[in-house]
Amino acid sequence: MVLGGIDFAVSPGEFVAIVGPSGSGKTTLLGLLAGLDRPSAGRVLLDGQDLSALSEDERARLRADKVGFVFQTFHLLPTLTALENVLVPLELRGGVRGEGSRRLRERAAGLLERVGLGDRLHHYPAQLSGGEQQRVALARAFVHEPKILFADEPTGSLDGETGARVIDLLLELNREARATVVLVTHDPELATRAGRVVRLSGGRIVSDTRREG
Amino acid sequence: MRAGFPLKLAWWEARSSARRLGLYMGAIGLGVAALVAINSFRADVVRAVAEEGRSLVGADVRLRSSGPFAPEVLAFLDSLEHAGVEVAYETRLPSMAVGLRSGRARLVEVQAVEGGYPFYGEVETEPAGLWPLDGGARRALADPAVLRQLGVGVGDTVGLGESRFVVAGTLADDGRELGVRGMVAGRLAIPAAFLEETGLVGVGSLVRRNAYLRLPGEGEAERFVEAHRSFLREHRVGIDTAEEEVEELSRGLGMLGRFLGLVGLMAVLLGGVGVASAVHVLVREKLPALAVLRCLGATQRDVFLAYSLQTGLLGLAGAAVGAVAGVGVQGLLPGLLGELLPVEVGYRVHWPSILAGLGMGAWVAIIFALLPLLAVREVAPLQALRRDIEPPEGRGGAGRLAARGALGASVVLLSVWQAPSWQSGLAFAAGVGLVLLALWGVATALARAARRFFPQRAPYVVRQGVSNLFRPRNQTVAVTLALGFGVFLIATIYLVQANLLERLRGEGGERPNLLFFDIQPDQRDGLRALLAERGTALEPPVPIVPARILALNGRPATELLADTTDAGPERWALRREYRNTYRDTLTATEALVAGKWWDGRAPARLPRISIEEDLARDLRVGIGDRITWDAQGVPIETEVASLRRVDWARFSPNFFVVFEPGVLEEAPQTLVALARVPDPEQRAELQDAVVRRFPNISVLDLSRVQEALDGVLSKVAFAVRGLALFTLAGGGVVLFGALVASRVQRQREAALLATLGASRRQVRLVQLTEYAALGALAGLAGTLLACLSAWLLVTRFFEFEFGLPALPLVSTWAAVPALAILVGTLNSRGSKRRTPLEVLREAAE
Fold first, then answer.
1. How high is the ipTM of this complex?
2. Which residue in chain A has the smallest CA separation from B751?
3. What is the pTM of this model?
């Protein structure tokens, strides 16, 4: 069993960092919270909905509506341009057609501008650096105004300076979007920027601390 | 590192990559199966021809003439008999036969034999032992098809000209009757003694005479031919020896087999393209592991050798499976193609073909994999620590050049080895290169256009599916080449066949379909009246005056024929009996290309003639040259006034030589005429009625000719298309392999899309669109190129008009995406269901 005895709740607007050593079950927990996997026992409620009661497609729809993702290895679709990658969550909701299409495109382009990639809208992932790719991923994560953002080691593949800039951007975008953020990291410095730190070890929560103020 | 390490590494690696590379090796195996089958079958046929040898001709030497033998030739044959040579005579002519019980009449090929023909082999009859026909009784033997057409059986009576014969039995197919002639008019054999009384051998009838010789002593034929060639040529007698005939037949069939084998070779080469593509992907995935091996002390040579060995061994395994399948297919071929062959073909496992297939499979696998394998040599040990290390620039340039050279040379050598001649081998290799290049160009252009101009309004899943053709490490080009080539071959063959058949059938079905010949001038009105009674119009009869060439520009034909240098006129053109006509206008099937058509004014110095352009070339004559004719014993000197181009493919009375009116009217002549009777039953009834009234007039049902040609063409096309299917199946395997190779990447993308909120349906639609786009791309590229090549073949080679049968073509095209979707779905069915998290996490590692 990877996880056991996990019981915690995240309030709207909270910024929670899940930390712990390798193999402690951080990413498994993240996957369960996002409905990417099903727990063998227990329940996960996301925005009041019991994920284990939903089918795979219903969970996918829930993610398309309410969840944003940032991964360690960016996971951009290599065949799409930066702008198209950002549009994917909207496309999956059937959004980028008809009347509102121009508005949504402008929104995606605006987000890319916000992360400093205004001149790279039509570049493919292979033409972007790691930091730039992660910034595209950030824009993608926020484009559909998710209620909750899951980030799995978002700075893990970046050097210190680039990583810091990406986190600054993430927090900045989140301030505007007022989404809940659940971030998995083994970087203690990054964890200090979260309002709450849940520490895992051996698949169990060993501490759950909130920063004062 | 121990010397055996590469071998061990090859074995370890083969275990893990056998499944993926194995699929590509399957494509090579398919090609090898086609090659082994066709090459083994070719060996079976050539052996059968050699074994039956002289019995195919029935004699050591055959002398043939398109009319009665000249008295000098008959005297010569007499003298031969006195010298111990056995001689048998055969007369052949087309005529109508009537089944007396049924009243049905059909065109037959009358065969009248005197003497001991055949000297070798037997004429099998049913019941047995009826050959040679007893010269004392009016009995006949017929092809079973003739009896069926006449509606009679053994024991019934058939009418032939003025005589009646009782059908004693049927003739078995002995391989001596080849081609469409035999299919249109079956054989009816009668004793030579009764030929005269049929009254069919008259002026203008299409009688051919053969003399069969059995020489005393072995191997005399060549000496005989050498000694008598010029005398026989001088008297317009053609000579065939059994050896030549066997040699020619073996060569012809062997060449046909080799051409078919080239299609098989194509399938092998396409498998090679697939292998190259798979190895390319495999090597890129293996680079980190190889870097670790290099860190642990493996040399560049170890790693390269191990992977080359692995590829070669898997290629050999694929070829072995293919060879076994090929031996199985070989067994099916006599059933499929037997009717087209003059001999009974046995079945024997042909080891040289099998070994060649095995060698070819392994070699193609190695040589095509060489280029991508070179990357293995360039793996830097440091890549084990840092993945983003690039191998130093410029390394391995010479190796790559050598690998490309080896690849090109191998394709050329294999083509030359398989092709009937080195020239056609080179042409084939060049053609393959050109077609692949063109396919690549067309596919790339189409793919770019699809991406660039794809409607932005299309649903996201469709746009994503199309753009997936460009994913990193995509195998779009390899798959397009492999599938596209199969489509190209099949569509080209289909288009050429459809155009030829369309042309043979005649446009719109308004063409005449009955040809009446051997009409005597005094029967013209009677025949017209008989047709009119049945509401059928007879097209204006065309006169035919048989004649031979006596002299060209004053030089006697005999002198020209005896000339042994090659500079003079072609012998066939001097030797043949011409069937000339006369008229004052050009017909719809001919066009003037030089000189002037006579307009009836100012009689020329000499009677004017117009000659078909190819004949003029072979006779080495032009405008103003003089030709002297022997028209039934009357010499007529003429002057060439014009040259015509004739469309021989059209079923209408076409002529090599046309005289101006006012010259041949009084010469002995017969007439031919055409009529159109659409209904088959009415056509049959009309033939019966004509023969009852005019026993000497023969009627050729042109729709039977068309059916016969249709049958032959369809069989040949079936064989070629069957082989082309091997290449398409190979293309399918390459596609399957490409999908397997990119499965991991595809799963990652599916997982990512699912994570971002895509439903399973959306993910599936993206993939289906990608398969369909891939298939549509390959299908369209292949079909477009096929249209171009078929257009070139039909208009330049066959010199026919070209038409595009749109519906079958579109169906062929549409079938390819269907195939791609099927293969793609089969491929993804095998994959185990995994959660997005598992896949993404694995990707991050």
1. 0.78
2. A36
3. 0.66
